[in-house]
Amino acid sequence: MENLWRAATGQDPNPDDYRGVEFWTDPERAGWLTKQGDYIKTWRRRWFVLKQGKLLWFKDPASVTRGSIPRGVVSVGGCLTVKGAEDVVNKAFAFELSTRDSTMYFVADTEKEKEDWINSIGRSIVQHSRSVTDSEVVDYDSKSR
Predict the structure, then answer these.
(1) Among 77, 65, 69, CA closest to 131
(2) Is the distance from CB of 28 to CB of 51 less than 8 angstroms?
(3) Which of 72, 76, 105, 136 ranks highest by number of CB atoms within 10 Å?
């Protein structure tokens, strides 16, 4: 019933958002996080996978297969910050991931897991950021003096 509701309301992510990402194998990070809903602000425990600049989430680890459709996906290259958010949501081990338009909140199970997720997502933001394109990079060493 929930899948029917998600399909009817267009809540499934666009397949173009994760095309070419083999999320079912060798993720950069994977694990349980509790995520605040986008529309209804309830907290739900989901299985998260970080791979190739995409943060994807699923109902549970068993639902991560080659043919599965993620419940959501965020391109971390479009994110601006990832940082602790315990004070914002009044929950231990909370962190936030922000884009220009929105902020998503997550809760890890431990302080170490929170820090590991923040570090992994932060590295991915830097690696996949669109803020500096190859054409904007200047090699100062090769310029004549």
Answers:
(1) 77
(2) yes
(3) 76
pLDDT, greater one: 144 or 109: 109
| pLDDT tens string 71-95 | 999 999 999 999 999 999 999 999 9
pTM: 0.81
Return the structure tokens found at 105. Answer: 């909140």
What's the CATH number where 90 sits? Answer: 2.30.29.30
**145 located within any domain:** no
List, in sequence order, the alpha helices (H) in the chain: 2-8, 86-89, 111-128
Structurally, the chain folds into a number of domains equal to 1
CA–CA separation, 36 and 40 (whole Å): 8
C-alpha 120/C-alpha 28 separation (Å) is 8
